[in-house]
Amino acid sequence: MSQHQQLTARIKAYAKELGADLVGIAPVSRYEGAPAMLKPQAHLPEAQSVVVMAIHHPDGSVNFGAEPNSNFSAGFQVGMIPKLDTLSLRMSKFIESLGYVALPMSCTYYWRHRKYKTVPYDHASSFSHLNAFVAAGLGEYGWHGMVLSPQYGPRQRLVSVITDAVLTPDPLYSGEPLCDKCKLCEKACWGQNYKPEHLLGDPLRFTIEGKVFEHASINRWRCFWGEQCHLDMNLLATKKNLKEDDLYDAIKEGVTRTGIGNAGYMCSSFKYCMAKPIRVWDKSKAPNPLRRKPAATLTDNDLIRQVVDLAQRAGADRIAILPLSRFESIREQFYDGFRVDDFFKTYKWVIAIGRELPDYVVDNTAPLAEKNLQPMEVLTCGRMMIGTVDIARMIDDAGFEAIQDWWLSGISPLAAKLTGWDAVWHSRNPHGAHNFAHDVDGAGLEHPKIAVQSVVCNADLHELQLLLPNVLGDIADLQDVCTVSRGKLPHIELAGAAPLNALAPTAQEKLRQLIPTAKSLLVLGAALPKRMVELAGSQEAECAISYNFANYQAMREAGWAAQDVATALKSLGYAAGAMLEIDDEAMWRKTPLGGLPDLRSQAPFAVAAGLGFQGRHGFLISPQFGPRQRFAFVLTDADLPAAAPTSGHCPDGCRLCADACPVQALDGTSGAAVFPRHDVRCEWSLALGMVEGEGTALASWRLPKLPVPETLDDHARAEALAQKDPIQVLGYQRPNQADTPVERCLQACPMGR
Fold first, then answer.
1. Which residues pair with residue 95 across a beta bridge?
2. Taking residues 186-190, what's their average pLDDT?
3. Of 343, 289, 347, whose CA–CA distance to 155 is shortest?
4. Among 117-126, 285-294, 397-406, 442-451, which is the least confidently predicted range?
5. Which of 320, 330, 455, 528 is least surrounded by Cβ atoms within 10 Å, i.e. has the fewest?
6. Would you place residue 485 in the very low, low, confident or very high pLDDT band (cuts 50, 70, 90)?
7. Separation of alpha carbons 45 and 68, rounded Å
8. Mean of the per-residue pLDDT values of the chain
9. CB 547 within 8 A of CB 537
10. What's the fold here for domain 295-467?
11. Distance separating alpha carbons of residues 547 and 265, to the nearest angstrom
């Protein structure tokens, strides 16, 4: 086996270890003829290969979705986005650890909805996972423009990593044609988007190594009506020649929205598609074609062992399996048009997994607690969603039927009640728009205690309830907390502890509002890929998507690790709570996935924990990664051994960080060791996304021509955000949706190169 083959085998094996159902390799040569800005080399100039990974949709989540129409998604896609983004960053860092460059791509959320420079299409992602899937030999395009695999038909979701590693490519798919142009997608589309008068012209065609692919040239503004705007799908077919402004007119005219705050979205064309070689029909089970799957063979004990293992891998600290017959009381909670009777006939069991949320012992209403609880709830809920999609896919592949719970079904709160898990449940809208915390009687709870997500299935199981051991196990010696954490939590690279009395008096006071007996602060860091930071927004693709998604994903990794350490310390009898921020007045910036803390506000605490020194830009500079890391914290009354300080300083006279800032937020003329920062300017540019030079305009957003203010209050913020791109403000109803700002000061820092 050649060196390239050995490397390819290691990468594919790691993808499977991470949970990918499909993995393939595409050489960059297969992108000849693609628009220049969309090629892998436009993102990573030295690119040689693209690693493509996919996880499949559980069949049940498709069979019960898009009913009564596409505005109603049920369990479709629950958990898939955090799962795929985790795959992408972990694979990228794995490839880096082997000595190569890797650029992780986010699975979703970021689009250029209008043509951009040399990109000739509306609604183009800056890098197409669909094209990568086909180029990696994993399948073919369907007539609807989605991709089909021989294993799952269209029922998979994708993510890619671009690398300079020369890998052994997979051959293009050459089996039986997967799409036979049955046109079920056309018939199922609620907007009649495939009618000749609605198409943009002849089919889109392209060639890879002599093989021709084609699909319908759909007007994606019509898809945008339901998928992003969540407008009433019953009305889309009445709209002719739909363009961008017609969407805004419909919104202003009061066309009903569903979805966010209601039920979601699932494409009916997707629901009614299935690859011909594995297409079967059984109208007694679903109105759409089904996927032929292997016969069920595993015993209940085998299944349960795998279920428990997957729950524990996802960070769950408890699991329960309950008969669905005990959930009859929630029948009335399903929306009109959902096949409730079929649901209760099809499925037998509810598998609920849960994770305890941070509890700061004394005062969960203190400002610092308020700053941390909601973001930690989001991270924990996403982690449990990963567990449910892993479990549902495993059950699906074992020949049974499974569906993830969704946030309005009522399944998880009742599961929490039946298990007695503090009679408190938490589930979040997967779009992150609202905090849906309820007790089991439906009353709002400000600070839930347990995050619970569920899978409903027809596998042969039996009732049980277990508490699961923490991934760290027992830490016998507090001297080993940092070492054990780094060893058993491989997705964090930095760990250090500071005694509380080494922190500023104000910080000590605020932290002791949460744990009065607190003695130590543990700081955990997850690194950002080096080349990704260097290139963000400055490469030919003019893309900062990787930078923004990876910053959030690295924070996720650090936050999940902090939860695990806090749980381990609590098992030893100590008080401990995981946190993302220590400064309750610090700036946060919004992303499509959630909020990101200010690295500058976190840096002094990381310095106190011996992880590095504070650079002139205010960020931590670690010996290993320079300024390229995200943090989370554990506050505890355990007396952890203090880390030795790390010495260092920025190069004499260096002010590259200050010069790189598009709003001159850093005072580079200051002789201070840390340049003073104009916080309002930084917030305006970075957090609110109001400045072209910071990177927000790279997503083709139209930014208002407003001067950088000297002061800001909530009214001024709201007024400014209301003037951002109408796609963000009117379409998504989120002014910061898919902003792609880059900390130009961090990017310019020579200590990270």
1. none
2. 97
3. 289
4. 442-451
5. 330
6. confident
7. 47
8. 92
9. yes
10. NADH Oxidase (3.40.109)
11. 27
- Strands 147-148 and 140-141, how do they pair? antiparallel
Tokens 């300080």 correspond to what residue? 645
Asked whether the predicted pLDDT for residue 632 surpasses 90, the reply is yes
User: How confident is the model at residue 426, as a pLDDT?
Assistant: 42
Average confidence (pLDDT) over 665-689: 96
Rounded-to-integer distance, Cα 599 and Cα 628, Å: 10
- Give the number of other CB atoms < 10 A from CB of residue 573: 8
Predicted local confidence at residue 425, as pLDDT: 43
Measured between alpha carbons, how far is 233 from 242 in angstroms, rounded to an integer? 14
Distance of CA 564 to the CA centre of its chain: 20
pTM: 0.95
List, for residues 262-296, the tens digit of each pLDDT value: 568 999 999 999 999 999 999 999 999 999 998 98
Q: How much is the pLDDT for 609?
A: 97
Specify the pLDDT at position 361.
62
What residues does each domain of the chain span?
3-280, 295-467, 478-752
Nearest CA to 495 out of 518, 541, 527, 465 is that of: 527
Q: What dihedral do alpha carbons 541, 544, 546, 551 form, nearest 10°?
A: 170
> What whole-number distance in Å separates Cα of residue 694 and Cα of residue 688?
11
Beta strands 290-291; 279-280: pairing state = antiparallel
Strand 464-467 to strand 318-323: parallel, antiparallel, or no bridges (unpaired)? antiparallel
Task: Produce one character per residue of 579-610: b if its CB has 16 or more CB atoms within 10 Å, e if not.
Answer: bbbbbbeebbbbbbbbbbbbbbbbbbbbbbbb
Per-residue tokens: 573: 């009898």
In contact, 587 and 576? CB cutoff 8 Å = no
Residue of 27, 76, 77 lying closest to 51 (CA atoms): 27
Give 261's pLDDT tier (boundaries 50, 70, 90): low
Residue in 385, 372, 474, 475 with CA at minimum distance from that of residue 428:
385
Give dist(CA 302, CA 725) in Å, integer: 52
Q: Which residues contact 369 (CB under 8 A, 6 or more apart)?
A: 360, 363, 513, 514
What is the C-alpha separation between 244 and 402, in angstroms, rounded? 38
d(CA 293, CA 221): 35
Containing 439, the helix (H) or strand (E) segment is: strand 437-439
**Tokens (6 digits) for 521:** 């602060």
Task: Report which secondary-structure segment, H or E, holds 313.
Answer: helix 300-313
